[in-house]
Automatic annotation (TrEMBL):
The keyword Transcription does not apply. Belongs to the tRNA methyltransferase O family. It comes from the Bacteria. It comes from Enterococcus gilvus ATCC BAA-350. Residues 3-124 form the TsaA-like domain. This is TsaA-like domain-containing protein. InterPro entries: TrmO-like_N, YaeB-like, YaeB-like_sf, YaeB_N_sf. Keywords: S-adenosyl-L-methionine. The keyword S-adenosyl-L-methionine applies. PANTHER family: TRNA (ADENINE(37)-N6)-METHYLTRANSFERASE.
Length: 154
């Protein structure tokens, strides 16, 4: 299996954007017709052998003492691949400007996919009780105090 980096996430004082390698620019044709996208990227700062695990000790304040990595969105996983939704502001050549993205500067981009309600909205979603107070939409997520939800260890 081979995965090709298609670009880098850029976090600047003026905002965040995806900088695709020029050979992938044509892949952006039609993307500006969508309001949101998904970005798959590599947790490059956390690509550490010790973090390539399958369980995590109490990552969430209100969560159980131990969770399997596939029940989390964090970087501890067999392959440190991240998935984030983002609102598209504009696209210029090989640059995709976003409203916000929870990725580090220079994170390698693995793929971009448009957000489509027919594939991505689940009307009858059910999650565990310990996270039932979390926002129920991307839009409300920005107002939520996420820092109070995670256990951080030094």
């Amino acid at each position: 299996m081979k995965i090709n980096e298609i670009g880098k996430v850029k976090q600047t004082e003026s905002g965040v954007y995806l900088e695709l390698s020029p050979e992938y620019q044509e892949g952006l044709i039609g993307l500006s017709d969508f309001s949101h996208l998904y970005v798959l990227y590599w947790f490059h700062h956390l690509d550490i052998t010790e973090l390539r695990g399958t369980t995590v000790g109490k990552p969430y304040v209100h969560g159980p003492e131990k969770l399997g990595t596939f029940a989390t969105r964090g970087p501890v996983r067999p392959n440190p691949i991240a998935l984030s939704a983002a609102k598209i502001i504009k696209i210029e050549e090989n640059l995709v400007y976003l409203e916000y993205l929870d990725a580090e500067n220079d994170s390698p981009i693995l793929d971009i996919k448009p957000y489509t309600a027919s594939s991505d909205v689940i009307e009858n979603f059910e999650g565990p009780a310990w996270c039932s107070h979390w926002p129920q939409s991307y839009e409300r997520s920005g107002e939520f105090d996420w820092s109070a939800e995670f256990n951080f260890t030094e």
